[in-house]
Sequence to fold (685 residues):
Amino acid sequence: MSLILLAEQTLNGLQFGMMLFLMAAGLTLIFGVMGLINLAHGSLYMVGAFIAAATAAFTGSFLLALIASLAAAALAGVLIEMTIIRRLYERDHLDQVLATFALILIFSEGTRWVFGSFPLYLDIPDALSGTVTLPFGVEYSLYRLVLIGVGLVIALGLFLLIGKTRLGIRIRAGENDREMIGALGVDISRLYTLVFALGAALAGLAGALIGAIQSVQVGMGEPVLILAFVVIVIGGIGSIKGALVGALLVGLTDTLGRFLLPKAFALVLDPSQATAIGSALASMAIYILMAGVLILRPRGLFGGAAS
Amino acid sequence: MTIRQLFLSACMAAMATGATAEGVKVGMITTLSGGGAGLGIDVRDGFMLAVEQSGRDDIEVVIEDDQRKPDVAVQLADKMIQSEKVDVLTGIIWSNLAMAVIPGAVAQGKFYLSPNAGPSVLAGKGCNPNYFNVAWQNDNLHEAAGAYANSARLTNSFILAPNYPAGQDALTGYKRFYEGELAGELYTKLGQTDYASEIAQIRAAGADSVFFFLPGGMGISFMKQYAESGLDLPVVGPAFSFDQGILQAVGDAALGVRNTSQWSKDLDNPANTAFVESFQAKYDRLPSLYASQGFDTANLLISAVEAADVGDQDAFRAALKAADFASTRGDFEFGPNNHPIQDFYVREVIQEGDVFTNKVESLVLESHGDAYAAECKM
Fold:
């Protein structure tokens, strides 16, 4: 095992973490501000990917595809917030889970109805294809590097938005005391719609970016959704910083676990057994991480005090 | 469109019941919703095309969606056997669903014709006279890939598959025929979509080729990321990751890949030419491997209905076993465990105009059965 390989795997872990962050940021904002468990977040990711694939096929431009995916996911977010989600804020979490689970089914079958049952084609633009050689001879995919960059830019943007703008102040106030900011004259329902649209747009962007290197198909959102929930539980619900740290932890643990665990077992066991045990344990690694974090910090790494 | 087809087939089914009292009632349990729906829809469309072409009004088909869930499939099978009183069951795509449904169905005296799944247990110790597999035993396509690797003088393969029974069967099947060294062997998570870590390991392993079995979306993700990683080792795989339904989604990344299959749209026999033409005319898309398997399954059934009455189980079973139908694959016969003995080809992914498709390159295994037939006692 060379250091170059280890460096490449670390980059892979970072890239995976950054994409998880895009999903988790929206999820944690929505949960933090509105107290809503949104299982349909993965569907917005899928909507982003499908719209991007359709736009790219129609116009041939990846940039337009990204813009379209952002807009479509935000629009879908606004629509479901105003028609359905809005009625759920006062309900308990079980009702929210049931209703947003129903939304998953509606989105999945609706997408299948519009786009058909076969996966769609979405490829990375020519300008971003191929590999670049980094210092120390690490050969790495340019597109994945760009993904890491996009993730960093968005993380920075979100910190500024939450920390430095009036909207950010309202969002933070909304997390702390919903009734009070309503009483202070903030249009709370518009704020909720805005936050929901922001979360949806981030999910849609993640779907479009990831769709270019994975398969754009019905049901692509649910596995990511589960990971995003793991991330926000680790990071602490409602915290953007927690979402970033949690996402990077999960990304690195998953990627390096898949790579290192079978190798570690191979030192003491014969190869086929080591592969089997190592792979099995690697797929559990992030859940073990989550359990560990919850034992030490029941509210997650950056979880606030009782809400 | 799919709803209309369902409705149409339901209508056809309803008319068929009205027309005759005897005749055969078929229960099709297949995956029509969710991520794996493309496969089930192809099997159904291929099957219904053959039924329609036969012009028979004594074959009634009841179609239900198993949602790719074993518990749903078992409930549907119970319903079909007990209240619909079907004579023949078919349609299941996935091996885990097949294992949940088939043993119970054949134990209740129903016939089961498998258009896709061929788990090793049902080919070996768990074989049954009423269970016929019209597709392949699960290992077959991987065995063919191993045989192809030998003929292409590949001597240092890196192999990977998801960590679940069919994935383990795949690597076992490949290794059963492949004679070279292994540069590495990996089991990935089922449903995994990011293969950056695996591709980095392939790059570091010094392999001369890659064999992988990653059905559905997993294969699309892997191929796109593999192409983008700058690695250019030859890739070999079973047809599942390079079939008509998903090739368009993989795009350029799949060009030139060799994959093994028992069927290809350019196989030169009259049954296949007619099938490809009529499928395209009716559904306005190229048929896939799965569509050909659905079509063959229906034609096998039709050949048996013509020869015997389903009420006479022994005669009907013998008629099925005779496999007296024109398969889209050319020669087709059943081995002692009711699994096919057939030819396997290696295909190359090519581009015809805007469409990505496969072209037969050569025959790799001739009249090949499966490794489990000897364990089957019936």
Observations:
- The longest strand of chain A covers residues 131-134.
